[in-house]
Amino acid sequence: MSAASTIFYAEGINSVGVDRIVSAGQVTLATFYRHFPSKQDLVVAYLQGIHELIAARLDALAARGSGHELVRAIGREVVDEIGRDGFRGCAFIKAASEFEDPDSEIRRVIADHREWYYQAVRRAYADAGHPQPGNAARHFVMLRDGAMTAGHLGSRTTATRTFNRGVEGLLRSIDVPSLIPGDDGDR
To answer: What is the DSSP string of 124-152?
Structure first.
């Protein structure tokens, strides 16, 4: 699984064949297919593994703080990810670009992860006292998506600086009523 995860993240999913994964993982085809009846099963396991890593990190952050502190900590986690060696963008966004069928199991795993992430950020904004935590969480997730993409395609420094300014702006908006007409809903 580790070999597949490394290869999928670095090179993409559809461009990598099972033979390459088997060779890199130093397993037999029979062993591979015993654990993963199809390549799709491997991709689902790859994405679920990434989700579990992110969930563990966010759980650890939530155990250490809440409110403004937690929102900032989640933001720092995004910045840290962008700064890691070998960073190539968000694995979920990359996978979504390769699997267009919204009803596929892979896209379901991606959608489930994104909903989970949104809900985790929403809870952090609610704890911080944001009057519209759903709106703030959607903005945060969009900022994150943009920063992950910009951090891969352009300047990591610019992406993280811009992302941090956006997160701080969302935190400052806690005490400021919305100036956008019709933006009074939370979903």
So the answer is: HHHHTT-S-HHHHHHHHHHHHHHHHHHHH
At residue 115's C-alpha, the angle toward residues 77 and 119, to 5°, is: 65
- From 101, 102, 133, select the one nearest 119 (Cα to Cα): 133
pLDDT at 30: 86
Looking at 2.40.340.10, 3.40.1190.20, 1.10.287.1080, 1.10.357.10, the CATH number of the domain 40-175 comes to 1.10.357.10
Better-scored residue on pLDDT, 153 or 21: 153
Query: What CA–CA distances, in Å, run from 65 to 61, 122, 126?
Result: 6, 15, 13
Q: Quote the tokens at residue 45.
A: 């396991």
Axis crossing angle, helix 67-83 with helix 105-127, rounded to the nearest 10: 140
List the structure tokens of 165.
């300014």
Q: What's residue 25's pLDDT?
A: 85
Task: Write the pLDDT tens digit of every residue in 85-134.
Answer: 999 999 999 999 999 999 999 999 999 999 999 999 999 999 999 999 99
- pLDDT mean across residues, the chain: 92
Domain ranges across the chain: 40-175
What gap in Å lies between CA 33 and CA 38, rounded to an integer? 7
